Amino acid sequence: MMQSSINSRNSIWKGVDWVTILIYLALALFGWVNIYGACYTFEQSSIFSFSNPAGKQFVWILSALVMGLVVLLIDEKLYDILGYWMYAAIIVLLLITPFLANDTKGSMSWIDLGPLKLQPAEFAKFVTAIAVAKYMSRYGYSVRSWRDLVVPFCLIGVPMVIIMIWQKETGSALVFAAFLLVFFTQGMNGKVLLYGFLAILLVVVILKLQIIPDAWIDKVLMPHQRARIEVVLGIREDPMGYGYNVAQSLIAIGSGRFFGKGFLQGTQTKLSFVPEQHTDFIFCTVGEEWGFVGTFAVIALYVGLILRIIYLAQRQRDVFSQIYAYSVASILLVHFTINIGMVIGLLPVIGIPLPFFSYGGSSFWGFTLLLFILLRMDGSRINKMH
Question: What are the distances in angstroms from CA 298 to CA 121, 191, 338?
């Protein structure tokens, strides 16, 4: 048995998809460099100093790599066995978070642990993906009608509602809509996605034509959410208010032109014109300092990563791993699309990080666990029967 365990671990290392890991490392390292650039001042200390967010991010990256190594050594069957228990535990943690959290810009989603702040919502994504994969991979399950999707919808709906209403964190909650793409790959009628698009289009028309009283709209959307949507739609011109972040972001990206101003040479960055530039708006730092070449490289890396994960999903030999892989691809796709879209003014600002790139320990750890659990599943595929 010991020899079998050793052989199994050796096969994992042989089966690990190093292409995915290389893309992951490229994004992490380039993100780390740009975090330093976004926070750089003339008096700034070393990139490794804790007085700069880049120094802290370096610690998050190293610790995340340790987590990834541990995940690769854990038997992937545990995720299937403990899937529902993990889900129950994260739901409880999400529920008690507001009692332990401090108010952060209206959100009650961060647990303060002294020098460390954790956002459980970031870990809820991969746990929910495991629970959904476990349910949809059970024997005899298939998507034949709406009734077959009731439980999966509940699995994603519970954390989504808790995060949005109880923790008041809209951005993180909306990411759970990514699972609709997973359901689509498993046989969900494409009309559902069409109806979702039409619903969004209807909201746009309502806001544009102002055919519903303001009082009714304000019951659904918070004032700042409505204002940000109206700025994107061109209903409201507010470059010094709700549209300030996007306006300054576009100036920063445009000023970089083709090759950029050079590393640490971004004037928009140095003068702190763009708020949250090392977190949600990190992409505009790339545009200003590295230009079109840099932004194209970052987008290419994300597209390459997502396509690679879809490839991994298609080569899985069991339904559980395949559904989980599609979940990883969908979550990363939604994060990437929304973050880039809001930075360049195509989508409302809702405040979600760029995976593996934005500053933040919780998000980096959460995305790393999300990805490396998939790599562990994929690495063991050679041991599974056809």
Answer: 25, 33, 15
Indicate if 122 and 251 belong to the same structural domain: yes
Q: 194: which 2 tokens?
A: 């069409």
Q: What is the pLDDT of residues 26-38, one digit of tens each?
A: 999 999 999 998 8
- Between the ranges 137-146, 184-193, 261-270, where is the mean pLDDT highest? 137-146
279 and 357 share a domain?
A: yes
| Together in a domain, 286 and 204 | no
Clarify whether residues 241 and 198 are in a common domain: no
The pLDDT, as a whole number, for residue 10 is 60
Does residue 201 sit in the same domain as residue 239? no
146: left (phi over 0), alpha (psi -120 to 50) or beta: alpha
> Percentage of the chain surpassing pLDDT 90?
45
Strand 111-113 with 116-118, pairing? antiparallel
Which domain covers residue 300, as residue numbers?
2-189+224-383
Q: Which residue, 333, 325, 319, 336, is CA-closest to 384? A: 319
Is the full-model pTM beyond 0.85? yes
* Number of domains, the chain: 2
Distances from the Cα of 301 to the Cα of 45, 305, 317, angstroms: 29, 6, 26
Residue pair 272/280 in contact (Cβ under 8 Å)? The answer is: no
What does the block give as tokens for 312?
Answer: 């991994």
| Domain co-membership, 317 together with 211 | no
